[in-house]
Amino acid sequence: MWLLEADDVDPLRAGAGLYGAGGGGRVRTMAAILRHVLAGNGPVTVVDLDELDRGCHAVLIGDIGSGTISEERPMAGNELLRAARILAGHMDVRVDAVVSVAAAGSPLLMSVLAASQLGLPLVDADSTGRAFPSLEQTGCGLAGLPITPLALADTTGGELIINGLGPVGIEKAVRSIVPALGGWAAVAMRPHTVAVLSPALEPGTVSRALEAGRLCLDDDHPGLAARCGARELFRGNVIDVRRMALNSSTGVMATAVLEHSDMPGRTLRLEMQSEYLVALEDAEILACVPDLIGVLEFDSGEVVNAEDLCRGSWVRVLTLPCLPKWRTEAGLALAGPRAFGYAFDYVPT
């Protein structure tokens, strides 16, 4: 058990960005809200899975929709609280703890906010280990655990409960509904007992993100390598970025080309959709999904989201290993390169 305080928000934001792999939403506005709430409410208690009674219920917290819209239309502040409460009331269960759908991107910060507002402990675990764009691309989806009933709450007071759909159906339903909710919504997923949920969770991922964020902000690349398995693929200047709109679920496909800072003529190509998906040099795959690809500003160590990457940026490109479950046959079918439309198989890094 440990306490997550307002002073931890900046490194947590940086770590959430790194494990967001270029996606997971924009976290700066969410971090400002969280810092303010923790300063007023006090720290959030973070607990290990084995500190919880096996029969207590934990609710999964996240969000869905456009990161850009969530920045343009900041949260009212009570969306997560409303989503969790209407879901608990609908199921007639007492929620005892909060779990992040993904200890990455905005869902990680939102789970801390939900724990603070609900007065509940946050579990030092998550179901995914990184950001993915789809509700079915979670540890629960991989383990076959139902995530419905699922509650959505928007910034204007709108609330909705969806029940009885499987992973693919719920993804399609939510994506069709989110535009009517203003393009973004807080999400609370079906509470499960700790005994049921534990096999779908990866322990220690909240503390891992916090540590990784501190290392990023300290520009401690040896520490990132030793503690998080990070490996630098490339460093240099972004010389070209091209984006092409696809569809409502895939969003934008983009390609960025970087020239090496020390070896002119040497280039790296980054392929991205909601997240960074593939890094190639001379047609050789250096890293690909489900492993993580992260981009850091060269001087500050700040994480650069895929939608913010632009020409003229000086950056480092890193890769980090995904959770082992995503390298299984089932995991790759759900979140490997072919799941994102690429015509090649996963290449371990």
From TrEMBL:
Residue span(s) of domain S-Me-THD N-terminal: 7-163
Pfam families associated with the record: S-Me-THD_C, S-Me-THD_N
Residue intervals of the S-Me-THD-like C-terminal domain: 170-348
Coiled-coil regions listed in the entry: none
InterPro entries found in the cross-reference section: S-Me-THD-like_C, S-Me-THD_C_sf, S-Me-THD_N, S-Me-THD_N_sf
Identification of the protein by name: DUF917 domain-containing protein
Annotated organism of origin: Actinomadura chibensis
